[in-house]
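Q: What residues go here?
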């Protein structure tokens, strides 16, 4: 058909019919309905019955593919064009469409215009004098108004909050048996539920459940929701169980029941509500949306209740399936948000760490990063990378931990906690490649970093580059002279340098080292620890008579942390003293020290 044909004959009904039929064959339903609408407009007044029937067909078709607005538009056109031919069925259809689109006032109006319904504000004069809202409406309903239209009027009044008038409108309905009028009972109850008036909905739903034909899961579910919202948790729990008896895989009912059981303090019952029957779910099968949602909530509840072993078993299985999902399964797993998945991964890693299963934590984090699930969410990606640093460190994989932490240190080398972790990693690393990294980092980015100066000093001390170590420790000491650890490090390096065979001016270096150690003792306190360290340094340079003084003093002092035997240095002190006494020929004293402090 040429497009120009309708251009010159816009109201040609045959051409409009041909175009509508063509659109229908092409599957373009909306355009087909628009063409049929144009036919309704073009039909002459003497074909009013044909016009009305066509409009009804359009409304039916629009209802089929969910186009409410076009159905309303079509009926409004007929109501305006042929008001004398309108039947109660048409009013019912238009009111239903208005209710579906939440246009309750217009639904009331169409019933007033075409069904003889009358509304009058009650006590309007008193309300005007007192400055209050009208208390309600006086509703005048003509005899013979169909019951379904009466109930639609009640629904509109409920949604419009004119609740005082509803009882008179619905009275004829509640005089009928719910076996016969159960669908209308349910409509009224759901209207009350929609506006959170559960008290009014509860008896209606209870009456429905007594009817054999309406003892259905959907009614039980609404009844359970009412009870839950009213705080009647025990009764609500029983109602949800009735739903699950009839529909065992109803996800919303399971989740609601689990939440209620948890509120009632019945943790095991809550877990049971979320547990899938093994006959319904196998480990190797694909998960449906319902399975994913239930397994996720079950894992979360297991973690909350402290069932760590079961939580790890269920959670790791679920996360593995999530990470291995393909494009077909994506929609099923998307029922749980990405933030919730990320939270589950964090909980799993925390529990794995507590269970000393850091290798499994490292594996799950690595797989998550490889999947690029959170690639576009920078904050989560960063957290995962740092979690991987911690997992690899705790798992003893120090080389990988060093590789993972390098980027963090490059960007945040001025953060104390980060540098403490970095120091732990490089201290346990094998090899010296981190030495060069730390030096480059100091030179390029953080020349004033005290932490990097200390690490560089440790690296130099480890390779016996004592002069370099002294320079790095001195740089750190310049930042914080009150830190006793830096004074100790300087003293150790000076004594180590003095103990070298070809070092010149040994006496001067020893004096400087002793001065640093005494500064360390003043800052740290006159404790077992400080006296032992000074004695050990003096013994290193063969000043045994001074070392004996500090060792004996250390033996008389308590450990720095008395409750922890690891901090008791008496065995080490006694052993070093025994070496000095044995070297001087006092074997009996050496034997006595070993017998007193070193025999288990």
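A:
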């Amino acid at each position: 058909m040429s497009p120009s044909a309708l251009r010159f004959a816009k109201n040609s009904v045959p051409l409009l019919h041909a175009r509508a039929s063509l659109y229908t064959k092409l599957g373009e339903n909306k355009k087909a309905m628009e063409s049929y609408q144009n036919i309704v407009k073009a039909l002459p007044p003497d074909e009013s019955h044909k016009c009305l029937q066509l409009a009804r067909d359009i409304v039916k078709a629009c209802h089929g593919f969910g186009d409410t607005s076009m159905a309303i538009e079509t009926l409004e056109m007929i109501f305006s064009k042929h008001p004398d031919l309108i039947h109660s069925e048409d009013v019912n259809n238009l009111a239903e469409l208005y209710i579906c689109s939440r246009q309750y006032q217009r639904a009331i109006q169409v019933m007033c215009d075409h069904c003889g319904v009358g509304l009058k504000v009650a006590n309007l004069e008193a309300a005007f004098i007192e400055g209050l809202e009208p208390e309600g409406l006086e509703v005048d309903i003509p005899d013979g108004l169909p019951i379904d239209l009466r109930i639609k009027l009640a629904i509109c009044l409920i949604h419009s909050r004119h609740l005082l008038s509803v009882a008179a409108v619905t009275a004829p309905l509640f005089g009928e048996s719910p076996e016969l009028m159960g669908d209308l009972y349910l409509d009224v109850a759901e209207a009350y539920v929609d506006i959170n008036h559960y008290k009014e909905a509860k008896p209606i739903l209870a009456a429905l459940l007594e009817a054999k034909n309406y003892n259905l899961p959907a009614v039980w579910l609404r009844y359970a929701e009412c009870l839950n919202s009213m705080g009647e948790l025990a009764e609500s729990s029983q109602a949800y169980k009735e739903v699950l008896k009839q529909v065992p895989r109803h996800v919303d009912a399971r989740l609601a029941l689990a939440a209620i059981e948890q509120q009632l303090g019945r943790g095991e019952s809550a877990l049971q509500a979320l547990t899938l029957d093994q006959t319904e779910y196998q480990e190797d099968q694909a998960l449906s949306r319902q399975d994913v949602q239930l397994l996720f909530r079950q894992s979360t509840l297991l973690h909350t209740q402290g069932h760590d072993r079961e939580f790890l078993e269920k959670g790791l299985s679920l996360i593995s399936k999530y990470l291995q999902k393909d494009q077909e399964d994506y929609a099923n797993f998307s029922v749980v948000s990405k933030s919730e998945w990320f939270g589950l991964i964090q909980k799993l890693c925390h529990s794995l760490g507590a269970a000393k299963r850091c290798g499994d934590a490292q594996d799950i984090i690595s797989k998550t990063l490889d999947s690029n699930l959170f690639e576009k969410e920078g904050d989560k990606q960063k957290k995962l990378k740092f979690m991987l640093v911690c997992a690899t460190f705790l798992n003893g994989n120090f080389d990988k931990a060093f590789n993972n932490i390098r980027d963090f240190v490059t960007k945040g080398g001025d953060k104390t906690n980060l540098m403490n972790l970095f120091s732990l990693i490089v201290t346990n690393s094998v090899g010296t490649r981190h030495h060069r990294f730390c030096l480059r980092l100091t030179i390029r980015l953080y020349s004033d970093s005290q932490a990097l100066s200390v690490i560089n000093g440790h690296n130099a001390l480890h390779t016996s580059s004592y002069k370099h170590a002294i320079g790095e420790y001195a740089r750190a000491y310049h930042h914080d002279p009150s830190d006793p650890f830096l004074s100790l490090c300087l003293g150790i390096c000076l004594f180590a340098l003095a103990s070298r065979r070809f070092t010149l001016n040994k006496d001067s270096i020893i004096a400087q080292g002793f001065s640093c150690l005494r500064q360390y003792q003043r800052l740290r306190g006159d404790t077992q620890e400080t006296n032992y360290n000074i004695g050990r340094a003096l013994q290193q340079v063969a000043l045994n008579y001074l070392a004996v003084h500090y060792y004996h003093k250390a033996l008389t002092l308590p450990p720095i942390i008395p409750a922890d035997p690891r901090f008791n240095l008496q065995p080490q002190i006694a052993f070093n003293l025994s070496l000095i006494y044995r070297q001087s020929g006092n074997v009996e004293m050496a034997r006595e020290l070993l017998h007193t402090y070193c025999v288990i």
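A: Context that may help when evaluating the design: Confidence is low (pLDDT under 50) at residues 1-13, 124-134. The first strand starts at residue 118 and ends at 122.
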